[in-house]
Design brief:
This protein is mainly beta and 114 residues long. The chain has no helices and 10 strands.
Length: 114
């Protein structure tokens, strides 16, 4: 059984920064790529960022490129999402996920005020 636990969300003003963390329990974390998704009210869940198992390759949603950075620390079984220059349209519930599995975090709210 795998458990993913997110932390670090909250309320921030436009232009501010937050760092999300996702701690993985019960799996060989270093063997898997990881992803961050988000879902805004009334919208479909969208893939925000992904990172390979070693951290050697990353990919981003076009609208967050240059502002968000995904990273991981395999020694801590944790994946991060550093979010800078936040905009109101980044407001959503953010989820971490292990690809091709049903393992999702509980979701964490990020709210950006204008």
């Amino acid at each position: 059984q795998v458990q993913l636990v997110e932390s670090g969300g909250g309320l921030v003003k436009s232009g501010g920064s937050l760092r999300l963390s996702c701690a993985a329990f019960g799996s060989t974390f270093r063997s898997y790529s990881m992803r961050w998704y988000r879902q805004a009210p009334g919208k479909e869940r969208e893939l925000v960022a992904s990172i390979t198992s070693t951290g050697g390759s990353t990919d981003y949603l076009d609208s967050v490129k240059g502002r968000f950075t995904i990273s991981r620390d395999n020694a801590k079984n944790t994946v991060y999402l550093q979010m800078n220059d936040l905009k109101p349209e980044d407001t959503a519930v953010y989820y971490c996920n292990r690809p091709y599995s049903n393992y999702w975090g509980q979701g964490i709210q990020v709210t950006v005020s204008s």
